[in-house]
Hints:
heterodimer, A: alpha+beta, 6-stranded antiparallel beta barrel, 12 strands, 32% strand, globular, B: mainly alpha, 6 helices
Amino acid sequence: MVLAGLGFGLSRAQSAFRQDGQLDPLGRVAQFLVLPPAGALQRGVDTTANFWTGLFASAGLREENRRLRTQAQSWALYQEVVTALQSDNDALRKLLQLKETTKRVSVSADVIAYDPNTHRMTLNKGSEAKIEKGQAVSSADGLIGIVQTVSPQTCQVLLVSSPECRLGAMVLSKPPVAGIVRGNGREQMRMEFLEDSVQLVEGVRVVSSIHSEKIPPYLPIGIVVSKTNQPEAGRQEVRVGLSVRFASVREVLVWR
Amino acid sequence: MKQFLTASIVLWVGAILQVALPGRMQAMQAQPDFILIASASLGLLLWPTQAMLSGFFGGLLHGLLAGANLTQYVVSRMIGTYASSRAHELGFEMGPVFGGIVVALSSGVTDIAYLFFAPPASIPAYLQTSLASALYNGLLAVPVVASLQRILKTDDTGV
């Protein structure tokens, strides 16, 4: 009972620190003792895996590398066009006295811990890299989560699969439909719409909303996998299959 | 003193492995829980009070590293390691394989206890994942129990 009470007290203290977006002192001590050797072990495991992959798959990797370089060159040709269009868009928004679209800067970080039970990841960058609570985190596959606590050199991310996570999102149907997505504890999210007349098709992409202050718009979240109409409640709900496989994420971007 | 030092080192190594490896060792939705393997293996070879202490510190470590609710982790792991410490009353020979089975059962008890504190969105899916993870933990616990038996030099009754 004493130990359970002590655990409860420490839990309350931890929650109080988390409300302020900070890591509690005990958590910092635990990270200090565990993260450096765990990082060394991860690097060793990755190096070994890369060695064997290079040994047996070098021909395939060379071909994939050549193909990706060609793709990158093609996309670079379009980058000038995109930059010019963005500049025109900002100028027009200024003329119409609309709020300017925020030019976002991203910070790259490595994933140093992942806990699927609590839907959290720990990254190796923190307040020293100007990371703050509430910033969005994404990988090459899409939105991963939101920064929840920050210490000087690490931060913890609440994943979008967590039931605690609620975000604005859009279904890219014609016309696009906005709604709120929330995690349901698995690699899926639920999205609710207050109109049951919205026509949604399975397989349509779901992206982050354009209305958020902190989350960049159009970040991939997933695709519609199923839908449920609740006409008596005047709403419908869809299941969104996530585009990110959290266990395989190694590098991420934190959007400032 | 030897028991305290051994338990501290085993839990610390378990925490390092828990941070570094589970994502890379996922198999069919199951992931190993190295801190739980460490504390349940210790619990098997210690007195019940000592086992609950190892469960407490294992849960505390896991909760701190995950940034999760400490009460859930601490209490569920204390229950699991207490169950593990009573295994020798079954009268079986305390070998590594029996130890692995006990750790698997202890892992299941821990997950069920955790269920009451933090009900998941889908209980059948949670139980399915828990069963797979418990088997995984039991398998990985066999060499851990064998090593701890040598280090702590316990007899067949486990204490």
